[in-house]
């Protein structure tokens, strides 16, 4: 039996490791870096198997298991998933079973996009000051990481209400992170060496801008219902690494039981 897994986040990695332990030939497809959004987390404290640690450290542990079990990883963008077929920008692959663990995509503000803008903290490079637009976990994770790295950071949001978990909000306050809650970004101008942010209150200058205004699933590339959905793409309202890991294991077990008659 051959299994193709679209997405190298916690869900996809967990499924691959579990299947490989039972001798199933697995291939993981990832267009960016292994670990998914977990790489952006300042600290993960809700998985009782680990002491509180950074998302990057947990991803390193997961990646080490991929190497231990010699799981094949293809770094390429998946453009289409058909029944038993995964199409990437550079090839076509055929499998007996396909798992889609592609996670979520950001809610974009196309008019703000530029080389100085990112939707994930790990995509930001070479900056001393950072503006973050949003008030959820992604925004506060990024703000805390930037502050602890010695960067100047300010959070802006449309609403006064903070959607991040309380511990992130309290940590940000303790660190003295500059917050402009309820101060909507109206316009963004890009100069040669900085980004200029305009609100109804003032104009600000920063090196980079992180847009963190929510995420959504995108299954437009999946052209068949004969796949397994796991992780955030299966339940975007319950985006937790622990749930993603259990999803991966659960579906791997289903595939093993379904394939009991296969000769592998």
UniProtKB/TrEMBL annotation:
UniProt cross-references to Pfam families, sorted A to Z: Pyr_redox_2
MF terms per GO, please?
Answer: oxidoreductase activity
The source's domain of life comes to Bacteria
Respond yes or no to whether keyword Oxidoreductase is given for this record: yes
Stretches that traverse the bilayer: none
Occurrences of domain FAD/NAD(P)-binding (ranges): 2-220
Q: Which UniProt keywords apply?
A: Flavoprotein, Oxidoreductase
The protein's matches in InterPro entries, at most eight in alphabetical order, are given as: FAD/NAD-bd_sf (IPR036188), FAD/NAD-binding_dom (IPR023753), Ferredoxin-NADP_redctase_2 (IPR050097)
Provide the protein name. FAD-dependent pyridine nucleotide-disulphide oxidoreductase
